[in-house]
Recover the amino acids of this structure.
């Protein structure tokens, strides 16, 4: 929106052309989303508290969580507003990647909102039934995958890039849609499973989004893409602004979500952020790198799968409780220790992911 305005005003004063620089708009995107989150956050928390929209703690969960009962939830709506406003202000609204990423994020946020609303407002602990939740996630994921496939303009948009190997490029053809679907839906649910401790999910999300912003910028820049030997995706650079908005919104939310949390993001935030990461990774052709950088999300998801499979097949549990962060809680680790150590692991994994830009 402001990009178009600056283009018009630059006819009268050349100084406005500075807003054409993608890096500047990305910085402004971070600052705008962060500012919105910090300004709106206190009002939103008071509103959620007044409406008594608070966390419901499972009876079979760790005892340390009982004190969190009643903490305002559905704070992820704040993240969505900050991302949407910042993106609409600073991104190129003629760019299809921006709209796909934004609409996928909002759609998954709406699915999470319905789930949270049923659990917290309607007081139904089951929330949106899993089959309905997965159905609507699949609908959005499939539509996004189909749209990306049929609007692709260069072969690189539908090829699988293998990290660390510059010569291994796998043309996917129509299989691209299946991969895109699984990455978007899988990433959404992985972040949702991780969102169980104060700040545990949001900070890794911020770090991965920041790294994806670098990939988006490089992929959208012909010279950088050629130098780094990554696929050049025309138009993907604008996703830098979207990722920057995620970073700013996430940091703003962390201000209130850090231990001890004043608000939780709920499914409305977790499902949306996970889908956003997956969608961006698909568009910049870095699905496998997302698997590396989002290793904490992967571990959390695998711990649930292993726990369920082991109990059904052997009648025994592998972990004291799944997802794995609860396992460490029951082993006696203080919550802040678990959170910070998972953050440190994410820092390392993100650096490994970024290293793939040069090591190939």
């Amino acid at each position: 929106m402001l990009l178009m305005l600056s283009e018009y005003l630059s006819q009268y004063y050349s100084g406005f052309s500075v807003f054409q620089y993608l890096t500047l708009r990305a910085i402004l995107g971070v600052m705008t989303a962060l500012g919105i989150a910090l300004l709106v956050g206190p009002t939103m928390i008071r509103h959620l508290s007044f409406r008594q929209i608070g966390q419901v703690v499972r009876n079979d969960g760790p005892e340390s969580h009982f004190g969190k009962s009643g903490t305002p939830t559905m704070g992820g709506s704040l993240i969505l507003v900050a991302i949407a406003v910042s993106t609409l202000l600073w991104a190129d609204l003629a760019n299809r990647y921006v709209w796909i990423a934004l609409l996928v994020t909002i759609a998954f946020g709406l699915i999470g909102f319905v789930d949270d609303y049923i659990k917290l407002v309607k007081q139904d602990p089951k929330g949106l039934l899993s089959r309905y939740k997965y159905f609507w996630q699949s609908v959005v994921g499939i539509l996004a995958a189909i749209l990306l496939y049929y609007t692709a303009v260069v072969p690189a948009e539908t090829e699988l890039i293998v990290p660390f190997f510059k010569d291994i490029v796998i043309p996917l053809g129509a299989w691209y849609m299946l991969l895109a679907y699984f990455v978007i839906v899988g990433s959404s649910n992985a972040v949702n499973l991780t969102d169980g401790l104060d700040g545990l999910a949001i900070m890794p999300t911020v770090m991965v989004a920041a790294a994806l912003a670098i990939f988006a910028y490089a992929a959208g820049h012909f010279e950088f893409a050629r130098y780094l030997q990554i696929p050049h995706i025309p138009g993907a650079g604008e996703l830098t602004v979207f990722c920057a908005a995620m970073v700013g919104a996430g940091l703003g939310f962390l201000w209130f979500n850090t231990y001890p949390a004043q608000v939780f993001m709920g499914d409305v935030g977790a499902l949306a952020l996970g889908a956003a990461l997956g969608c961006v990774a698909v568009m910049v052709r870095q699905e496998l790198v997302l698997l590396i950088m989002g290793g904490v999300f992967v571990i959390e998801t695998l711990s649930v799968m292993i726990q369920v499979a082991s109990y059904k097949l052997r009648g025994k549990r592998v972990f004291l409780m799944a997802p794995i962060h609860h396992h460490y809680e029951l082993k006696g680790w203080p919550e802040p220790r678990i959170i910070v150590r998972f953050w440190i692991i994410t820092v390392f994994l993100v650096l490994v992911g970024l290293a793939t830009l040069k090591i190939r």
